[in-house]
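User: Fold this; tokens only.

Assistant: Input:
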Amino acid sequence: MPPKKSNPKKEKFLSSLPQHDFISDIADVKGKLSFNLKYFDSNQEAGQDFKDWNDKQKQELLEKLRDYSRESKTYWLNQRIGSGGLKVLEIYGDFPRNTDFEYPLHVPNDVRWARFRMESAMRLVGFFVSEESAKSKQLSVDVFYVVFLDKDHRFYKMEKQ
């Protein structure tokens, strides 16, 4: 039997394909944060829509989402930022009382409100489902549901001292 002829185009194409399988890659995602925009609300005066942010702010947001997605929720709960040592991710639980936002009617009432600290006063506000709800409804506790863009830190206002 004569040896097979070499096909450079075929070999080049085959070498350009990924050399790992999807199952291996997806296993690495388990336990990492994901972001969902189903409950996004840009209709409140205190918040913004994506079109309201300039290109630099949108770029910073996407870079942060990429970075946040590389780690677990627990990791970000323990990461400190700034001179005051505030957390990157803070889970408040209940909707704050001292806020310029209103509780959106389309958001379930048994969620755990939280925020991610972005650049300067910018915050990404949303919620996680509770452990109990996640278990009973077979949902992931690692999904952050984005509700508000808060570039002026108006979701959880601190008392002036």
